[in-house]
Design a protein that fits this description.
The chain contains 3 helices and 7 strands; from the N terminus they run ααββαβββββ. By secondary structure, the chain is of the alpha+beta class. It has a single domain, classed as Nuclear Transport Factor 2, Chain: A (Roll). Strands 1, 2, 3, 4, 5, 6 and 7 form a 7-stranded mixed sheet that branches. β4 and β5 form a beta hairpin. α1 runs antiparallel to α2 and α2 crosses α3. The longest helix has 14 residues.
């Protein structure tokens, strides 16, 4: 298993972890100390803000989860992967693409997320 696969698995584990304390441990492992995450609705910086962003997701979308959709593409210090967000019944409610720049220690330095059109 490549480091990229482990990192992306950790990224989805972060989104899917309902326990805030356990989630913060995953965040420290996956994200660089000054990491930035930006998507069409939010921009956050640092471990605490990333944790708050995911906590809000769990509050607003109880029982929803994220999963990798397809392969991880990697070159130099960059990753790209597609994802899907599912409701508690497993139906896809949103999908998108994340582009990542890695820090020197191999954690996420910054992530830009893009949303696809929601299913009809």
């Amino acid at each position: 298993m490549s480091n990229a696969k482990q990192l992306v698995d950790g990224y989805f584990a972060m989104w899917n972890e309902p326990n805030a304390e356990e989630r913060q441990a995953v965040i420290r492992k996956v994200w660089g100390d000054d990491a930035v995450s930006v998507d069409p609705v939010v921009r956050v910086e640092g471990h605490a803000a990333i944790g708050d962003m995911v906590s809000k997701f769990h509050q607003d979308y109880p029982g929803y989860s994220f999963a990798l959709s397809g392969d991880i593409v990697e070159h130099h210090d960059r990753l790209r992967f597609h994802w899907r967000m599912m409701d508690p019944q497993g139906d896809v409610q949103l999908s998108g693409l994340d582009c990542v720049r890695l820090s020197e220690d191999g954690r996420i330095a910054d992530l830009a997320g893009f949303f696809d059109a929601s299913p009809a």
